[in-house]
């Protein structure tokens, strides 16, 4: 009972007057009570009880009250006084018995309901305490002290919404009621409404800055809201004042891990566990991540096993463990974890990426290619990996795969000049010259690769009818010495068609230097034609002379050489050539010969 246990308060007793702490009132009531002996007692016992109580001699005070009750057994006030003394002496069952007795005699005795409710709450008999407080409130609804007791019991029973409703009613009248704010903060905290809890608890802390329980809840709420630094401050203050707060260590350990203070995190989580708290998934996850950050492999692997025994689908656990295996070069274990991650998150390209890299280290290009295919299919876009996939396809894939892979790289804008050159070659191989030419427009390859592409690029432009570009590329290929004789001949023909006679002549002359006898005859005839077109008659006639001497007997050759001899005054030689020309081609008109021959 409260401090009022030091005296008998004013109380209605069945048929008896009230008995109170005032000696004068007490004597007056004693005089009246003499008429009702069953509820009256000698004043000396009350005086003795009061004196003993003032001296802290609770047993002696109890003896005096017992003597008073022997004289006035119907006095509920004395029963209430004795129950209060029993509580002082921690004789809880005796106190309950007296409160029960009072309430049997008076079903509307508010103080008895309140006192018994408090005692029942003390022994965690919350449902019974709730009953008593509700009875007391029914007798006086606006007693906010009792309403607060009622709300506190509701909290203990887990009826947090009802508690919040009751506490809000109190606070609507008593806005600064610290206890009501504390209890409502606890109710919000229990419901995981951490923002609301923090608001109430902050007001409590302003009044009770050193309250460890408030600091603990405020710190945990801050951590749950992701405000780790604030949470660490509150929790550090709390555990400094009272070290036996395992949940505070747990929450602070989680906050330390999230702020990168891994050593402190492991220490706090170990302390929480030592004090008997079960870390739970969040706590173990924090320990796992802290151990990973510090490369404490033993703790990491043990914690990973514990977590996976609780839930075998925890992606973070597999990821952290796989990364640790990877650092140690334990590729087999890492691959197993990444494959499990691929099962858990089949649409995550990251796991395909990790597996591809590991299979590459293991030298298994087939599995590497498989994972790279999956990586691309899932939307992965890391350039180095897509390029690696292209290298694997180019070395072992069929033409269709090569074309598809090259097209994918070009769409993504990855190393366009090189890939465009490669795809152009693929198109050229299929004689898709227009597409090849378009790819060659943006193609560029370094060194030896570029030399190989030059020839095909020239052919592609040629076949696509893009002759100026073809001429340019033929010339580049010629200088790189990658054109075959047939391709040089084609270059010469194209140059002639485009009116570049000098280039055509240069090319024919080049071919002539390496030609066989039979080919030389044809090339020299072509050379005659080109020299003639250029007006270089002397050189043309020299070629004609060589051809005629080597058995290429053409009427036009004889005719042209005859004119040369005629101009030189060598009429005998000219006559022979004109006659042979006439013999080779009788259709030559007479006007083509000089007058002297006609």
Kindly estimate the percentage of residues that lie in beta strands according to DSSP. Answer: under 5%
Question: Which residue ranges are poorly predicted, with pLDDT under 50 across at least 5 consecutive positions?
Answer: 1-39
Shape, per Cα inertia axes: rod-shaped
Oligomer class: single chain
Helix content: over 70%
CATH class of the domain at 484-552: Mainly Alpha
CATH topology of the domain at 484-552: Serine Threonine Protein Phosphatase 5, Tetratricopeptide repeat
Helix/strand-derived category reads mainly alpha
Overview of this protein structure:
The termini are far apart. Helix 30 (517-533) runs antiparallel to helix 31 (537-549). With 598 residues, this protein is mainly α. Helices cover 75% and strands 0% of the residues. Among the domains are: 484-552, Tetratricopeptide repeat domain (Serine Threonine Protein Phosphatase 5, Tetratricopeptide repeat); 555-598.
Defining key terms:
Serine Threonine Protein Phosphatase 5, Tetratricopeptide repeat; mainly alpha; about 0% strand
Brief overview, please?
With about 600 residues, the protein is mainly α. About 75% of the residues lie in helices and about 0% in strands.
